[in-house]
């Protein structure tokens, strides 16, 4: 299942049922597990391991060395788990050190032209849409959703089941379950994502309460955390622990100008309320 025009180093290890398309290049030290599909013109290099049942689309560059000035040797590592979909022209870089790894978990979907830089850690079931750029050492937790052309600063953490709107830039940590739009501002909770993942109305209300305390009551962060620590809820505790361990600080509240309220906030709130009315009967029948 290897096309005659593909170039594969003798030391590369390919398990059974690996399909390599025309003009793909696989360099030394690469390990590819079973049932992986490698599209045309894909280039895989570095100390890279790719887990089973992963799809790699046309022209992707996997395991390139980090984009760091002065670096001349690709000494780092890249581990990609199983059942990932890596679409056309995605770029993923190895770590900066042989003692660390860029890590991508299982069941992730990286859309075309997205970029994962050195030393990033991606968990599972993450969606990163077209053209989004993730800088070095970023951490993205389970089931986060990044829309198109999002830019994430280095060392940022993106919490579980959070969502980032298209064209946003993120330079601080995003707590779990929140929605960021624009310039590192939390607008609301990721309501659609929570419902799609089976969160109950009670759980959604708990998360909404956390959001209100953090972002709507104009409390200093220390006071808001004190208030949240008195709430006996696993979801609240998860958010508090995330914020307490943050080194960059968390994304702030959205403060709307009149035009933003008129053309962005009010239409969004109307749509959110409409979705609540439409979905509520369906949730009752669950």
Question: What are the key terms here?
Answer:
single chain; 286 residues; alpha/beta; UDP N-Acetylglucosamine Acyltransferase, domain 1; Udp N-acetylglucosamine O-acyltransferase, Domain 2; 2 domains; 5 helices; 24% helix
What does this structure look like?
With 286 residues, the protein is α/β, with parallel strands linked by helices. The protein folds into two domains: 131 residues, Hexapeptide repeat proteins (UDP N-Acetylglucosamine Acyltransferase, domain 1, 3 Solenoid); 90 residues, Udp N-acetylglucosamine O-acyltransferase, C-terminal domain (Udp N-acetylglucosamine O-acyltransferase, Domain 2). It is 24% helix and 24% strand. The protein is built from five helices and 28 strands. The protein has an eleven-stranded mixed sheet with strand order 3-6-9-12-15-18-21-24-26-27-28. Strands 1-4-7-10-13-16-19-22-25 form a nine-stranded parallel sheet, with no helix packed on it. The chain has an eight-stranded parallel sheet with strand order 2-5-8-11-14-17-20-23, with no helix packed on it. The longest helix is centred in the last third of the chain and has 27 residues.
Task: Tell how many strands the DSSP assignment holds.
Answer: 28
Sketch the major β-sheet.
Answer: 11 strands, mixed
Helix and strand composition category: alpha/beta
Give the overall form.
elongated
CATH class categorisation of the largest domain: Mainly Beta
- Overall pLDDT: 94
**Percent helix:** 10-25%
């Amino acid at each position: 299942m290897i096309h005659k025009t593909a170039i594969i180093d003798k030391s590369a290890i390919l398990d059974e049922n690996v399909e390599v398309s025309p003009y793909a290049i696989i360099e030394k030290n690469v390990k590819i597990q079973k049932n992986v599909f490698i599209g045309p013109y894909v280039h895989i290099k570095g100390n890279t391991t790719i887990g089973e049942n992963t799809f790699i689309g046309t022209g992707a560059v996997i395991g390139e060395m980090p984009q760091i000035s002065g670096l001349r040797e690709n000494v780092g590592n890249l581990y990609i788990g199983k059942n990932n979909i890596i679409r056309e022209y995605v770029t993923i870089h190895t770590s900066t050190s042989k003692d660390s790894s860029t890590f991508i978990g299982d069941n992730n979907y990286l859309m075309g032209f997205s970029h994962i830089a050195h030393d990033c850690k991606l968990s599972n079931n993450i969606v990163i849409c077209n053209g989004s750029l993730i800088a070095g050492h970023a951490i993205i937790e389970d089931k986060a959703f990044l829309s198109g052309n999002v830019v994430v600063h280095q060392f940022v953490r993106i919490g579980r089941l959070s969502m980032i709107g298209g064209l946003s830039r993120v330079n601080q940590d995003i707590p779990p379950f929140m929605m960021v739009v624009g310039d590192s501002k939390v607008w609301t909770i990721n309501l659609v994502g929570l419902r799609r993942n089976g969160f109950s109305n009670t759980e959604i209300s708990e998360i909404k309460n956390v959001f209100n305390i953090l972002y709507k009551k104009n409390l200093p962060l220390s006071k808001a955390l004190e208030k949240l620590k008195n709430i006996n809820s696993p979801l609240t505790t998860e958010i508090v622990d995330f914020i307490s361990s943050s080194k960059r600080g968390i994304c702030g509240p959205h403060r709307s100008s009149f035009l933003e309220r008129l053309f962005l906030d009010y239409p969004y709130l109307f749509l959110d309320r409409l979705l609540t009315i439409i979905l509520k009967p369906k949730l009752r029948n669950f």
